[in-house]
Amino acid sequence: MSASARVRADACPGVFATHDAADGPLARVRLPGGAITADRFRALADAADDLGDGALHLTSRGNVQLRGVTRPGLATRLSAAGLLPSPSHERVRNILASPLSDVAQELAAALDKALCADPELAELPGRFLFALDGGQGDVAGEGADVCWRDGAVLLAGEDTGLRVGPEHAVDALISIARAFLGARGAAWRVSELPDTEPLLGDVPGERTRPEIFATKPGLPIGPIGDAVAVAPVFGRLTSAQARAIARAGDAVVTPWRSILVLGPLEADTGLITDPDEPSLGISACIGRPGCAKSLADVRADASRVGKAPRAHFAGCERRCGKPAHEHVDVLATEDGYLVDGAFVPVGELARTLAEKDSAESKGQQ
Question: What positions does the domain Nitrite/Sulfite reductase ferredoxin-like occupy (predicted)?
């Protein structure tokens, strides 16, 4: 959508300004870099049980949502847990960081602190997204407005040719965010600006020819050194599963609706730990009955699909939660689905997606 087409204010939900969904108020809790301590994970689990629907819903930006928050007290609880360090900035603390990069994680914490310390940046749109990629190419492909990728500065996913060392990365990203505020007009995202060069302004650094960097989104599911990467089905983490993760230690929530658990996780949590699990490649919006705009119970339909390529099931044309990278678009209609634009009855979804998966596999051979 172009900036000139904006007809309403940015209404991205937070904790103080929730979204009125069909299943009750929805609150989004930002986790800059995805990092969360065991104590804070327990606090979220308790809040989900006491105030919401008993689950934590992971987002495609590495954040957590609580649904059905019909009882008061959420902001007080989360503030006490340290999850709301700046009420004025809580909706703009949108920061991705490579889960396996110590440098990216450290920079994410420093960027969050600098962001919250700047009163002007509280006016950023709730959709503005920062990313810090340690060079893995994982979060660099997630559609950030401004990304530091192991020295390279990217705007709207494209390399600018500006090179900045890690010691200046936070200052560079903060400077660019301030410049965006001055240039944005009605724009919500950097990609909506006609010219992004002015955003770089006087940001210090070396200039070189822009490159095209390879991206590799996702986190391998299963053991990773002393840690383990797990995924809840469709990103829905029960409060019991959240407490199991907290007992294991601190964690990192990723933008791929998975979690890097930084300690030994107990068995039988119901979390996906098998990298060959077919459902790993399938994501879905909340669908019916949680969303009044949805035309189908997309998660129920998606759960009946076996082998499939990376696909996203959406209940309406907003396509909430869709991945930033390439995927099969599965859009609900009144009487079936459009799979990459072609109508498919509900009963034919499994076969159609299996055929697409087979064709994709052959194409990669």
Answer: 27-70
Q: How far apart are CA 294 and CA 302, in angstroms?
A: 14
> What is the C-alpha to C-alpha distance for residues 316 and 293, in angstroms, rounded to an integer?
6
pTM of the model: 0.91
Assign residue 201 a region (left: φ > 0; alpha: ψ between -120 and 50; beta: otherwise). Answer: left
Q: List, run by run, the mean pLDDT of 10-residue segments along the chain (365 residues).
A: 49 92 95 98 98 96 96 96 97 98 98 98 97 97 97 97 98 98 96 96 94 94 96 96 98 97 95 90 92 95 87 95 89 96 95 87 62
Q: Give phi and psi for 146, each to the nearest 5.
A: -140, 130
The amino acid at 60: S
The domains found in the chain, sorted by start residue, are 10-86+221-270 (3.90.480.10), 101-218 (no CATH), 278-364 (3.30.413.10)
